[in-house]
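Class prep. Protein, please:
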Amino acid sequence: MIYKGHKRSVQAKKHILASFLIKGMSLLIGFLMVPLTIEYVQKEQYGIWLTLYSIVAWFSFFDIGLGHGLRNKLAVAFANKDMEKARIFVSSTYAILGVIFLVVLLLFFLVQPLLDWQAILNTDTVDADQLRLIALATFSFFCINFVLKLIYSIYLADQRPANSGFYNLLSNLTALVIVFVLTQTTQGSLLYLALALGLCPLVILTISSIYMFRGRYRSISPSFRHISIPQFKELMNLGVRFFIIQISAIVIFSTDNIIIAQVLGPAEVPAYAVAHKYFGLITAAFAIVSVPFWSAYTEAYVNKDMDWIYSTNKKLIKIWAALVALSAVMLTISPTFYHIWVPEIEVPFVLSILICLYVNILAWGNIFVVFINGVGKIKLQMILGSIGAIINIPLSYFFASGLELGSSGVIIASIICIAYGPLIAPIQFKKITSGAARGIWNQ
C-alpha cells in the first residue's frame, strides 16, 4: 500500500508513517513531562511557566512570515529543479531573519528592566529578580532557536516532515532526561527548567543544520554571496501575508493561558493546559497526516495535477471522520485518564467537551487550509483571520468573566474566532480547483 500510487503520494505516505511513529514517541514524552515538571516546580509555578512561555511565543511573529514564504518558494524551486534560486532563497531568509531577531533580542534586553514580571504573570510566589532572569533566558533561547528552525522549513519544502519530527523527538527526549536528573539532584527551580527546555533544542537544531547543509542540502546551503535583496522582496510579498496570519494565530491560540491566569489566576491554567494537551492528540494526528501535503499541493498545483489534488482532499476528509470517532472515545474516558495521568488536577467535563469540539472543528478547516496555504492564495484567510484575532481577547474576557463561564468561555471564544477554516476555506478550495476563483478568492 505504501509504495502504490503517484510518486508524490508515496513520498507523503512514507513520511506520514514515519511521522506517526516519531510523533507518538514525542507525545509520550510530552505526557511524561507534565507530571515530572509539576513534581519538580509544583502546580502554580508550572502555571507561571506555561503563561511566561505563551507570552514569549508572541514574538514569533517577528519572522514576518518568512518561514512559510521560504517553504512555498523553495517548493516551487524544487519542482522546477532550480537549485541556484533555491540557494538564494535560503541564504536571503537566514540573513534577514538573523538580523531581525538579533535586533529584537537587543531591544528586549534594554526594555525588560522596566517590566514588572510579577504583575504580568499575576504572581508573588516567585522572586521578581528570579522571574526577570527566567524571562531573559527563555527569550534568548527562543530567538536563537527560531532562526535555527528554518531548517524545518527546508525539510517541509522538500516534503520530508519526518526529518523535522525526528529532531524534535531528540530535543524532547533530551529535555525529559535533563528534567528527570534535575528532580533527583536539585530543588524545584523555574530557572533550571527554563535553561533545560531552551538549551536542548538549541543543541539539536545546531547539529541538524550542520549535518544537513554538509550533506543532502549542500547545494542550497546559506552563503553571504547568495543573499539577494530582489529575492528577499519576492519572499516578502508572500511572507507578509503569512506574517499577518501568524499574528492572528498567535493571538487566537496563544492568549488563552494568559487570559485564564489574569481572570482566574495561574492555578487555573494547568486544568486548561492538561485538557488541551490530551485532546491535542487529535490535532497532532491530523497535522502529521496533512503537513506533508502542503508542499506536495504546491508541486501538484505548479504541474496542474488537479486529479491528484481532488483525490488527496477526499482521503483527508475520510481521515478526519475517523479522528472525530476517536475523539468521542477519548472524551468518554477522559475523566479516568486525567485521574491516572495527573490526579492532582481536576478538569471540568464541560471543558473537555468544548476542547474536543474545538480540535475537530479546527481539523476540518485545516483539510482545506493546507491546500490554500500551499498554493499561496491566502489574502481572504489573512483578512478573516485578522478579524478573528481582533475580537478574540475581548470575546474571551466577556465569556470567561462577564458571563462567568471561566475556562470554558475562553475556548468558546476561540471556536468563534477560527470560523474561516471550517466555513470559508472549503468554498475557496472549490473555487480555486475548479478555476472559478476570482478577485479576493484567488489572491
